[in-house]
Amino acid sequence: MTDVKRPYSSPRRKEQARLTRRTILDAAGRLFVDLGYGATSLQQIADEADVAVQTIYAVFGRKQVLFAELLDLTIAGDDQPIAVNDREWMAAVFEHADPAVRLRTYAGAVTGIYARAGDLLNVLRAAAETDPGLVDLAVETEQRRRIGAEAVIEGLSNLGALRSDIESPRAVDLMWTLNSPDIFRRLVRGCEWTTSEYESWLGATFVDTFLERDV
Prior knowledge:
Number of domains: 2
Low-confidence stretches: none
CATH class of the largest domain: Mainly Alpha
Strand content: under 5%
Structural class: mainly alpha
Distance between the termini: 80 Å
Helix content: over 70%
Radius of gyration: 21 Å
Order of helices and strands: HHHHHHHHHH
Number of strands: 0
Shape: elongated
């Protein structure tokens, strides 16, 4: 019987590759926010990350791919392959028995996401207006945000906690609007609210909008 040689897998090499990838993404994030998507070249990102531009091509291929991965990383908060709705900080949004706690927890999760990714989402919105290569990503990002709103509203409905005078489709519309990154940008970046003030307002607004009022 002939021995089959298996490819050598080095944990150290894998970790180095992961660190290089993260260094590139961190450098890209700084430049995209400071300069804008269109004004940032892969060579500039390579210089910022102190790697060869060929390394970026080898790891990501295209700038659009790099940006998409950066956005996912920034929204999630780390590079672990775990969907946002499956993360520990989202557990109470779907599992807590108190619907008000669910909504306030969701407000906290939204605040954390926008504190990390709000500026990058603004870059995406502006870039998609002139770069056809980012249109699909912008559309997908909005769709994912709406799917998240649908999941939260569905959870309230299953609890019997959703206001009786709001049908689920309209509730999703309202949730999707209230948790918009544009509102975060206006209040936190424009009006200089703290993230704590924004989170408190958003949580209270969710509760007032979606749960039955005491008579």
